[in-house]
Amino acid sequence: MTLVVTGGGSGIGLVTARRAADAGLRVAVLDRKVGAVPTNVDIAIPVDVTDSDRVHNAMRSIGPISALATCAGIAPPGGLLDTDPEELQRVFQVNVFGTVYAMRAVAPVMREAGEGAIVTVSSVAAHRGGGLLGGTAYAASKAAVIGLTKAAARELAPHGIRVNSVAPGPVATPLLTEPERFARDTLLNRVADADEIAEAVLFLLGPGGRNITGETLNTNGGAHFA
Ligand SMILES: NC(=O)c1ccc[n+]([C@@H]2O[C@H](COP(=O)([O-])OP(=O)(O)OC[C@H]3O[C@@H](n4cnc5c(N)ncnc54)[C@H](O)[C@@H]3O)[C@@H](O)[C@H]2O)c1
């Protein structure tokens, strides 16, 4: 089984890639920065996920791919009135288009094999309208990822491909500054570690998730109620 992890150069993606490689999977990471990719990962390709052609070529160079986790993302804090069009575009290019490009590059290979599993990474911000990590564009982009996940699940199910999302609350990664402040916004009064999110991603990709598609797993300590 070959798993591709976008954004596997840091945080949630890095831990997902490391844990999958520990479990014996062949793992490939696509990230802008590959300097910190764990040494047990088989392939590390420097790619900007907003470049559709490069994503496509990188996926082709990996060979058959059975699983994809799209963890690359950015979370600028700007609100509606202080996000300029360039930043708005950048957030959607990375978080939404980057996810679409990776899916489009792997889905034909999976369709040919008659099976495959994809997990996107959205966020509690999609449910809460932000208010935690990331601003207005970020919340909108993560809501788009959830819609995209459902639409892709519907479209790809006839080909044996499952598509789900993991929606974390605050997670201790380089993306999250001031973890203590964010902990207070969860019912459980804690910030997750990246291992907990990676476990959810790998569960949905693996045999435990074989009857689950189009679903969003909220791994957020109750932050969407808090
Ligand atoms: N940390 C949190 O609290 C939290 C909460 C909810 C959702 N998330 C989501 O989880 C995902 C992973 O975040 P993280 O916390 O691990 O952050 P991180 O910054 O540690 O990792 C993100 C990775 O994505 C890569 N990346 C960013 N833009 C890229 C691009 N254009 N092309 C290729 N790679 C790119 C970065 O280089 C980095 O390695 C993101 O989508 C984020 O929105 C994080």
Précis, in short:
This protein has 226 residues and is of the alpha/beta class. Helix content is 42%, strand content 18%.
Describe the secondary structure blueprint for this structure.
Elements: E1 2-6, H1 11-22, E2 26-31, E3 43-46, H2 52-62, E4 67-70, H3 85-113, E5 116-121, H4 125-128, H5 136-156, E6 161-168, E7 171-172, H6 179-183, E8 192-193, H7 194-205, E9 216-219
Parallel strand pairs: 1-2, 1-4, 2-3, 4-5, 5-6, 6-9, 7-8
Nicotinamide-adenine-dinucleotide is lined by residues 7, 9-13, 31-33, 48-50, 71-75, 94, 98, 121, 123, 133, 168, 170-171, 173-176.
Index terms:
226 residues, alpha/beta, Rossmann fold, 7-stranded parallel β-sheet, two-stranded parallel ribbon, 7 helices, binds nicotinamide-adenine-dinucleotide
Walk me through what this model shows.
The protein is an alpha/beta fold. It has one domain: NAD(P)-binding Rossmann-like Domain (Rossmann fold). About 40% of the residues lie in helices and about 20% in strands. It has 7 helices and 9 strands, in the order βαββαβαβααββαβαβ. It has a 7-stranded parallel beta sheet, with helices on both faces. It has a two-stranded parallel ribbon with strand order 7-8. Helix 3 (about 85-115) links the parallel strand 4 (about 65-70) and strand 5. Helix 1 packs across helix 7. It starts with a strand and ends in a 7-residue tail after the last strand. The model has no long low-confidence stretch (mean pLDDT about 95).
